[in-house]
Design brief:
Keywords: Membrane, Transmembrane, Transmembrane helix. By secondary structure, this protein is mostly helical. The chain has five helices and no strands.
């Protein structure tokens, strides 16, 4: 086993962090009824997610420990503030557009389709490698996919449009 470089140490620590959260969810899911695959209880999904997170963490740690270290990469000197701000703005816009503003302003929400479209478009602006046309296409596909999954397949009552 080779000595870990900075990148390997960071990956191993990230793996340990994920393993800790996965283990937490594994134990927390036991407090709820887990059930089985045919009749899952409320703890079934958190149990699966916790197990997958621990598995992913083990793979990350093994890769960090077993792979030969590469040349040291220069440490990032700047935080990607633009991307962070756009992702946060996308999440806030979705929350406002899907649920409205409550008592602050008389706005009841724009519906699932428009909220997903706006959120996906704003989040796509964080990636400088895609064009405006590609970003609009991805946002439209995400809106259609959210309609298909949440309304058609899961039969959730979510307003699709502001007038619905």
């Amino acid at each position: 086993m080779a000595r870990l470089n900075q990148s390997g140490r960071e990956n191993a620590l990230a793996g340990l962090f994920l393993a800790g959260w996965g283990t937490f969810y594994l134990f927390k899911a036991r407090e709820y009824g887990v059930g089985d695959a045919m009749e899952p209880g409320s703890g079934y999904f958190p149990l699966l997610l916790g197990a997958l997170l621990v598995l992913l963490a083990v793979l990350i740690i093994l890769r960090a420990l077993l792979c030969a270290p590469t040349a040291e990469q220069p440490a990032a000197t700047r935080w990607p503030w633009r991307q962070i701000a756009l992702i946060v703005a996308a999440l806030v816009s979705f929350a406002v557009l899907i649920g409205g503003t409550g008592k602050i302003l008389p706005f009841t929400g724009a519906g699932l389709f428009l909220a997903t479209l706006v959120m996906s478009f704003i989040a796509g602006l964080a990636n400088r490698d895609i064009t405006l046309k590609e970003n609009l296409l991805i946002a439209g596909c995400m809106s259609l996919l959210s309609w298909l999954v949440f309304i058609k397949m899961l039969h959730l009552y979510l307003p699709l449009w502001p007038w619905s």
